[in-house]
Batch of 4 targets.
Target 1
Amino acid sequence: MSEFFERRVARALRSDVPLGDELARRRVMERVRHAAAEGHPVRRRGVPWYRRQRHSIVGLTLAAGIGGLSTLSAALPGAQRDAGARLGAVVIGDTVVGTLHDTLRLVRLMFDAPDAQRVEVAGDFNGWGASPTPLVRDERSHHWSVTLALHDGEHRYAFVVDETRWTPDPRADRAVQGGDGRIYSLLSLSRAAN
Amino acid sequence: MSDRAIIQQVLAGDVEAFAQIVDRHYARCARIAVRIVGNREDAEEAIQDAFLRAFKALDDYEDRERFSAWLTRILVNQCRTVLARSKRRDAVFLDLDPRQLDFAVDAEESEGPWPELDRMLDRLPAEQREAIVLKYADDLTYQEMSRITGAGESALKMRVQRAFARLRALLQEVPNV
């Protein structure tokens, strides 16, 4: 009985619904033509990564001169204001976890994508999206941002816009092409970078 | 012509070639969207937005992924957006008593559309409804579903099982089921 029920549900779900007549499909194509007239789809492949989406993306810059070892609570508020004013990603301070040998650096990533509904950062620090780290949108400025606590070293990352668009950071200091053909932005963290 | 070949044609500047993508995938998108959002008007809006977003992002499509799965991911996101914006389903369906519905279904109808089932889908929690629709309306693997929904495969299997259990309970009054 149970197997019969499941098979029947599956068959019903596979059955078509009366939607999508000629008019509906024409409406889709009208919107597509309109988007094409605006320059879509934007071609990115074959274009140097640092020139892609410059109009909508503000990338990462490492802030100089915010250095010094400080606690999270002491470093965050003022540094965040600085970061917001500059519109980039900045190292905003350190926080000591356990011992001085286990120091995390606070990095604020900022991203400008006013039309996006969702922006996440995928990197080696979060399993490449296995645990996606969402950016939060500021309703006034429409800028997306997130503050990460990262260990010293070199990190690879990219932004994922609306779960479909892999976007390296055009203003990162460096970028590399991975074995899968994607472009990854590089972020080096050390006391010197602070 | 394969989806990939059509996409290359569109990216080469032939916008009208995208109509083949629309024709090829509209019915499948409709099966998914209607059953996730619960009504045709919102489903059509979600489908239109999904095709448009897919067109705009066509250069980001990676060949390694099935185009249909990539499009479905965009569609599911649009359905979620529509659902978040429209609370109509709650007003229409939450107070519906399944015993008041006409459940008479004969053997022939059992092979095709099942209107009562579609109505009962609206009584499932959104996550369960989404999971069972993706699994059967689109024949996706759990791995593909995981990429689309962001949920783990074991969680998705559990949602499908629970959806079946809930539907069975809701439809238990139906003769011949």
Note: Chain B touches chain A through 52 residues (CB under 8 Å).
Target 2
Amino acid sequence: MGPSRGRRYFLLLVLLAGFGVILFRLVTLQVLQAAELTARADRQHQKTVTLEGARGAVTDRHGKVLAMNVEVPSIFGVPTSLDSPANAARSLSPLLHIRREEIEKKLRQDKHFVWLARKVEPEQGHRLEQLAIDGIGMVMEGRRFYPKGPLLSHVLGFVGMDGVGLEGLERRYETQLHGEKRLTILQRDALGRTVFPKGLREQVPAAGQALVLTIDEVIQYIAEKELEEAVDHAHAKSGTIIVMEPQTGAILAMAVSPRFDPNAVASLTADRWRNRALTDTYEPGSTMKVVVAAAALEEKVMMPGSMLFGENGRMIVANTTIHDHEKLGWMTFAQMIQKSSNIGAAKTGILLGEQRLYRYLQAFGFGQRTDVDLPGEVVGLLKAPREWGRRSLASISMGQEVGVTPLQMVSAVSAIANDGVLMKPYVVSEVRDHKGQSLKDILPHVKRRVISPGTARTLTTIMEGVVTNGTGLKAAIPGFRVAGKTGTAQKVDPRTGTYSSAMSIGSFAGFVPADAPRLAMIIVIDEPLGEAWGGVVAAPVFRRVGEQVLTYLGVPRDDQVKIAMVSK
Amino acid sequence: MKAVAVIAALCLVFVFVWERVDVVRLGYSIERLKTQKTLLERERDQLQVKVSALTAPERIAKVATDKLGLLPPQQGQLFIVHPQPDPPLVATTPAEQLRIARSMPIGGASK
């Protein structure tokens, strides 16, 4: 028993020692090094990635896509894993259209990660996969596409490389458009493959919201095409067209020339992409006379038949001379507007007085933002009467000493077309979620009544006379009644600080059909060469755009309405 | 009795292991399908951009004028007609059915 007992104790001791070692190791692993080892295991089993929902799309009023995100490859290099940066650069150069030296320089950096080209074409990604270069890889990133190219670029704006809106609607609606960003932990197996993690369904970040615009891409195209032609033909510096629905304030088109392609803005400057329709002010010249006329008619200072003397084209005001473009004698108030008499407008303004004129200018929205849902809008220039000089009343009445944006002016003209009610202009009509469900409908917003319906109708008749008998003959659209007003304003020469004889702005603002307005429109041509009269450079553009848009909208001509009535 | 208990225990263990393996297998399968879905969505988006670019009014106008030689309608060439909605082509009586059948072209419907 003795030796056998001794062996048993020995065996027991050995076993205890063995278990003791195991226990010690277990305590070391599970207790003492637990935190460190858990972290190391997590690093191997889990992959933390930033998932970002796609940026929301932008469509026109009929659902035509104007901007949307598509995932495209971005190419990167891992210099520490590369055998030969020179060989890699030689293979990549023709694929990425980047100089070989430039790529090689990046790949020779002492870094673990370098971007070689971001957001390239999908085809380039496919070709890179075929090359299969060790140390060169790609990840997918969302890239903003504007499939219509330059169409509506000044309104849409664009996003930066990191997908954040920098201009236009992209900037104004950044909060709504951008997709949700979320850190997500994915499980990996021993081969590094992603294993479907528990609860991923809840972790998918939401896509950004989509915008539906009031813009109609066909009307926008017509406006841009005609504006480009007009600016080219007049050798002008720039131009703007805004087409608005007078009853709602919905903007159907907003065109600025020169255009730009938001898909390639890297080489452009702000001068090219700023939306001049609301960032640039100009002295409106004679288009302002409709506002003065509205005030005079509403205040019963003038009637359409009231007589005014044109002073044969010259009148002294505050030791300065006001000229008319032709020698006018006695004329009615309506003729004064139709012939665009500066002297007649100045006399009307003087009869109205500073306070009343100022009150109406403010009521029509001058000197304040229209609050359109686009960034960068300026207030324009409208001084308070206490800052006016001795000539100001006369000058402002003929559209000088006051700075307006094209958007302010078209809103004011829309108010006349809308029976005297000023609407807030807007571009976005609906916000939808990524599934297309409506989240918010943006409804027309009435700002205020500025003149009575009777005054608006009287003024409309006078403005029709501008197109049938006055300075706006070239705006006439066969088969439709057009109401409008021409404007020609000299620009201030920045070198001399005085009005330039060479630089001017020609414009036309009006609406059609005059009896049941469907479109209010302004055309502004900046610094045309040669004849700069609004009636020459801008009025024909109104006719061409109006004619095409009315046809597109299916608005029957007056003679067609008559045929339809007879056949009934 | 003991044998039955052992077999039952083994079955339970087997079912547990099989279930764990199947979860992992399904996980891979889901991941594959998700990748496929992502690729298809990406392709759909790319095609949508292409469609949008191809239907741009500027391009259509260019093709219409340059390639097809079309011109915008001139004054007097365009009439806007607001037609009355067509009566339904559902025949209610045998006579009506006969009338519709007679008006149909051979081998096809009239509408």
Note: The first strand of chain A starts at residue 46 and ends at 52.
Target 3
Amino acid sequence: MSIGVYGSVRPSDVSVNDISIFYNYTASREIESNTMYSLTASDVLTTLTLPTDQQVSGEENILEGLYNLTLPATIFNAVGIYTLYIKPTTVNATIVDCGVLAALPTTKGILINSNLLPEGLRANNALQGYRIEYINTDGTKLRNVVRYVVTANKAVPISVNVGNTSQRAQRYTFDDTGSLLFLQLTPSSASDVKPNVSPYIGTPGTKILISNTFFSPLTIEIEMVENTINTVMSIIAGNQIKDVSNGILTYYDQDNQILKQFNLYELKDSVTNVPLYEVKEERSNIDETQNFDEITGSVGTV
Amino acid sequence: MEYLKKIIQQAVTTGTTTGCTNCAVIIPDTGVTYNIKFCLTSDSHDLGFFNTYDYSGITGTTISTVPYIVTGTTTSMLNQIKKYAVTPYVINQYFLSNNYLIDGLDLARSGLVGQTNVTGFTNYNVYYYVGGITYLQLSGTTGTTVFQLIGQAFSSANFVNRPILKDENKENMTGKPIIGSDVFIVRQEFSVFERNYNLEFIRNLAQLETYAGGAYFNIVNNA
């Protein structure tokens, strides 16, 4: 029995600038297509706002969690399957050094050049909660290893004396004038049973991927179809006109727009002129004179 | 990770073609957009307790301490400025003040100047000050009092405005570490009433020095 609980899943209020969108297209499930393309999230994603009567003057009034995705038909125009992958943005960086703080030698961290980061990530602790993943020296990704940024503070190197010897060591101290960011990662503490071995947090020169953790990734599969149940119903039970003079059969949708058009004709025996087949053949060229409103609008007029 | 499936009907329009009069072909309409609503959620986890970086070279970010007014309601605090006086008149029953930094009843703001024979606050909006906080007890009420103070927020010494970090030496701690100022060695002690150590068994001075772990006892003759 608990005396107090809290929920940890909340509607995300992530900025669209922190979202990356990728997509893939395949004409059918029988075709393997692994080519990915990207969309600019700020072009196709918008946040929604509260209803007008619930808005507070002077505030952004966003409705957390709900987003609108606008897919332009200039891209999404083919019948088939589009798979959209919506994930947190990732920034590439390189570990400049792995060091400890001069004042707290047990506090380990990695250092990266803040000037190479997007401007919004350069401030102290702007990277807190971000996920760090590593690239191996051969370019492959170090799979299944993630670390999370606990603190991120601007730091500068200083040289300190080590113990009672004349040796000196380069360590770091927090200083807002520094261009390096000292990132503490978790897990980085040594295990109780193996206190001399610390978890891997990276090595100098290692390339890393920095991703935000503002929302959980999402995949949307969009099946672009030619017909839905509505068009089927329109063909079965909707308006249609058969032009007796030229044998064109036209089906219309609920707005009386042409859905399909067919040529109706008979095949006859060339000698006996006896009908052999009745053919219904779809037309690729649509006869636009078969306009439902114009044809039916003339009914009753001379 | 969530996986959504949507079916969208392809929007079409007619395009021009050649070879026939009044003819067109059905083609995808590229002038439209398809809209989908979806929800994004985030899963929050606690990073735990942090320490502040209290070392030289860092002064923290200066936070502007613009004073601001805080108001609200409370119960009457008049009894805190009341003095012992055998008189029925209120201007003699309370400490007086005309400055919010000095505790007391403000006669001028309360409209009590010269009201030497007033015996109650029923018809007055009473202003008084306690500890730098201005209180207003509204006319005709004794339960509702409005307070007003000048907030200073981050000027409080209880706030530490320094960089934060995780001090691994302090992880997994749930309280302050216990530091002993002395090293104690527990010496063996025996009860004086143990049979083997009764005085009658002591035969020499060395035995007496180690008697009962070297402890000393006062022997009181209470016969």
Note: Chain A touches chain B through 71 residues (CB under 8 Å).
Target 4
Amino acid sequence: MKTGRYFQSFWLYALLIGLAIVYLIPYYIIARNALMTQREIAAFDWILWPSQIQWRNLIDLFNDPIAPMGIGLKNSAIVSIFQVAGQLIVTSMAGYGLARIRYKWADAVFFLVLGALMVPAAAIFVQTFLVVAEMGWVSTMQGLIIPPMFYVFSAFIFRQFFLDFPQDLEDAARVDGLGHLGIFWRIVVPNSTGIFVALGTIGLIRAWNSFLWPLVVGQSRDTWTVQVVLSTFMTAQTINLPALFMGAAVGILPMLVIFFLVQRYIVEGVKTTGIK
Amino acid sequence: MAVQNSTYDTANLAQKKNRARRDALSFWIFVGPLVIGLMLFVYIPIVWGFILSFFEARNTVSPTQYVGLTNYIELFKDPRFFDSLVMIIAYSIFIVPVTFALSLGLALLVNSVSRGQGFFRTTFFIPVACSYVIASVVWKMSLFNGLPSGFANNILWWVFGANPVAWINTTDPPLYWIVLVTVRLWLQTGFYMIIFLAGLQEIPHSLYEAAAVDGAERGWKTFRYITFPLLRNTSISVLLLLFIEAVQAFDEFRNILGGGGGTSIAGGTQILARPPLVYLYNVAFQDQNYGRGAAGAFIIAALIVLVTVLQGRILGFGKREY
């Protein structure tokens, strides 16, 4: 019986470790190719690790004539920061209003929000583009930042979360004479950091990794984001492979670091709000 | 007495009214921005796109001439549009259950070990932070590169001594599907594994203990009669989310199979598998035919919403408490 169990857990771990290795291969490939010479990458026999680390690939990347990585990084940073800030403010307030403020049309408004949840942004990207183009927002930062800011899913999760927020805390504040805004900013927000971090991170990854919307709205080169730059890089006639993979490394690193740091908030968030 | 009562009532009523008015104002301060945003970027676009689909709009996003149903008729005459619909249905039917099973499998595996659980969870979860574009770079340029220097080709050589395979350009058998399916699996399974893990941890231990008393060993039986039924709600949500994501596929198809040329006959390997969003992108942004693009976009959005709602109904999505 006992040996049977050890045997079982041996195979369990063998399977898990095997799968973990498979899941880690893509990072290894990015790191390896980013630090090699083109010749080493193109070698018939797989070279496990660069014989000499090629930091000059980083210089090549930022000097590449086809792929303006510097512009891409700057734009992605601006878009992500402002979009996430806007998303958190707009959707947390909407979630709170829908969860806690009594209003006779609240149900109708909630229905409107729910309806938008049924229409994924990508499914109407052409339509949204048509309106955004009429507004003159093509190839502008506001065109990249603002439309995806109204992230319905985020509002929905905030509402779910605030429904369970302890009422007595708010009541105490109300006795002290605070209005809805005061209660929200001084009592509710400081006591909800976990959900803000979780939805902020999800929003950040979504903004940074987004491809379709930046592709259609950021048409001029100076409004390209990291993903658009990498996509263009990839389809170039002659590709500087080490620089391309260095670009992938630079593009993924910020998200990996942030993800590592706040992973537990996301896991918690999935558990407590029952993101389903 | 009666007079007193009525003044009290009016005062109370006025106060109540005042409070209601203040609440109404607060409500709009809180919810108004989101509603305005959804109006501008969801509801108005749907209506505007629908109107535009009855107009000629080439090289301009503004309607130039009313053409009735022409855009729709042309759309249905274009075999590429129909093919894209068939392709995405077949693709969804395949990828949704596979992703579901793999995510659930990973969750069960991770949940069943205690040592190193954090490491395994993180390893499987972290691809969520990677973009489809970056994953496409790895998959197309190295992992499944058709040259002998590709990673998969090297493995084939070491293990079987086999010749290099042109993964993306091989149509018979259609090996490019291996590339497209594995990239999505790698990117997505971690997130759904986390959702399943949350579901698994909600199942009370006492149920398994009771089953053990009844002589059920932990294994297939407990999974079949305890775990899986209790994951019902989680499973429904995961299926729904996976399906919605699958029908919107764009990024990896565009980046791995290529965007095609600047003309309507998008060349290269794109013809192998062109999902509806790639087709729409070609019509609207490469051909600059916004009228027809709007017609196609309306049909596809309508289909996605219809399927979402139907699937929700069938699977009992509405039963869940919002």
Note: The beta strands of chain B are 55-56, 65-66.
